[in-house]
Amino acid sequence: MVHKVKGAVARSKGAPVTVETILVPDPGPGEALVDILTSGVCHTDLHYKLGAINDDFPFLLGHEATGVVSAVGPDVTEVAPGDRVVLNWRAVCGECRACRRGQAQYCFNTHNATQKMTLEDGTELTAALGIGAFAEKTLVAAGQCTKVDPDADAAAVGLLGCGVMAGLGAAINTGGVKRGDSVAVIGCGGVGVAAVAGAALAGATTIIAVDIDAKKLERATELGATHTVDSSAVDPVEAIRELTGGFGADVVIDAVGRPETYKQAFYARDLAGTVVLVGVPSPEMTLDLPLLDVFGRGGSLKSSWYGDCLPSRDFPMLISLYRQGRLDLDAFVTERISINDIEAAFDKMHAGSVLRSVVEL
Ligand SMILES: NC(=O)c1ccc[n+]([C@@H]2O[C@H](COP(=O)([O-])OP(=O)(O)OC[C@H]3O[C@@H](n4cnc5c(N)ncnc54)[C@H](O)[C@@H]3O)[C@@H](O)[C@H]2O)c1
Ligand SMILES: [Zn+2]
Ligand SMILES: [Zn+2]
Fold first, then answer.
1. pLDDT score at 352
2. Atom of ligand 1 at shortest distance to CA of 305?
3. What is the CATH topology of the domain spanning 2-161+328-360?
4. Is 305 in the pocket of ligand 1 (CB under 6 A)?
5. How far does residue 211's CA lie from ligand 1's centre (Å)?
6. Where are the domains of the chain?
């Protein structure tokens, strides 16, 4: 059977998102059909819409989601109909070289649904990050469903499906933030503020939030920043050095992903410190740094894909901390909107007035 449901589609580069009828097949082997409850609007959806990820239009957007499994393929055992799940874009294969080396977070062969969802005229859709959750139903690989506590607020825990996990993990997993560290986070949208929260969870004592938008800095303070820097007004490299005894921070996280913010991160860290790039650059961006500075400043320059998370390990642990009141996921949900309001949510993201708009389906 094919299910006809509403979905938010980006048809061509830059075109406004339209809500269309999409066709979702029943799950085949290894697949699960999920009734979506909530899906957050992530900057990566905007990157897709603008053609900054690839040209495989039309895209079915949305990928930061909670849902309920409604049907599974014949061989699926890990989830069952009725399970509350957070969707993930890292369903690891268990067999590639990275998985066999015990580094499943670098899996080269993560699973997505084999069958395609389509528009009514049969045009195949590319699901954003292999998920496509701005839709009443979506089809994913069963491994993309991480079973979670059904009592936790769907909108809040769904954000672990992408941006909040990416930020938390950039600090905790990739950056390896430790008790007593100094950390600076450049760009305090959903991802950056989550990195601030991650640094706080890990016990960093100095947590510097940097943004060009003063409103974002207030939210970062609520989530654990000890200092804020408005980089539209002052040089963030100087400011971070001043706040760290002249040294620079142990870990600097770039949650914007532009050459200028990367350079700020590079020079704002202490000698032998760590830079973590979690913001996603566009294809035309290039970086120009004196190679002698790369050598002379030492340390490590890392990128963080999805916060180096393993969903089955990290989502339940973080939801547990949320339920105990130790990780404020509710603070990330600025507004709850309908599927018709996604363009407006992109505008608000641009205007800096939201941390996360969450679509309720
Ligand atoms: N690596 C991953 O796995 C992963 C996962 C999810 C999202 N992302 C990426 O993370 C980035 C942030 O996502 P988001 O959802 O938080 O976006 P967002 O639009 O909500 O936040 C971006 C923030 O950066 C600030 N900013 C913009 N330019 C700046 C500058 N020059 N200096 C300082 N601050 C600046 C904005 O004011 C805003 O607060 C995006 O590039 C997104 O694609 C990466
Ligand atoms: Zn693998
Ligand atoms: Zn995302």
1. 86
2. 3
3. Quinone Oxidoreductase; Chain A, domain 1 (3.90.180)
4. yes
5. 10
6. 2-161+328-360, 166-305
Distance CA(161)–CA(307), nearest Å, equals 11
Decide if domain 166-305 falls under CATH 2.60.15.10: no
The answer, yes or no, to whether any atom of ligand 1 lies below 6 A from the CB of 90, is: no
Residue 38 CA: distances (Å) to CA of 35, 189, 255, 290: 9, 19, 24, 45
Closest Cα to atom 36 of ligand 1:
187
**Ligand 1 proximity of 352 Cβ (cutoff 6 Å):** yes
Determine whether the shortest distance from the Cβ of 111 to ligand 1 is under 6 A. no
Say yes or no: CB of residue 279 within 6 Å of ligand 1.
yes
The phi, psi pair for 129, rounded to 5°, reads 50, 30
Is any atom of ligand 1 closer than 6 Å to the C-beta of 278?
yes
Give the chain's count of helices (H) and strands (E).
11, 18
pLDDT tens-digit readout, 77-127: 999 999 999 999 999 999 999 999 999 999 999 999 999 999 999 999 999
Report which of 125, 243, 97, 262 is spatially closest to residue 182, judged by C-alpha positions.
243
Rounded to two decimals, the pTM is 0.96
Output the CA 205–ligand 1 centroid distance in Å: 23
Q: Which amino acid is at 347?
A: D
Annotate 176-212 with DSSP letters as a single string. ---TT-EEEEE--SHHHHHHHHHHHHHT-SEEEEEES
Nearest CA to ligand 1 atom 6: 163
Rounded to whole angstroms, the Cα distance separating 138 from 64 reads: 12
144 three-state secondary structure: helix
Q: 214: part of which helix (H) or strand (E)?
A: helix 214-222
4 exposed, middle or buried (CB, 10 Å; 0-12, 13-18, 19+)?
exposed
pLDDT band, very low/low/confident/very high, at 216 (cuts 50, 70, 90): very high
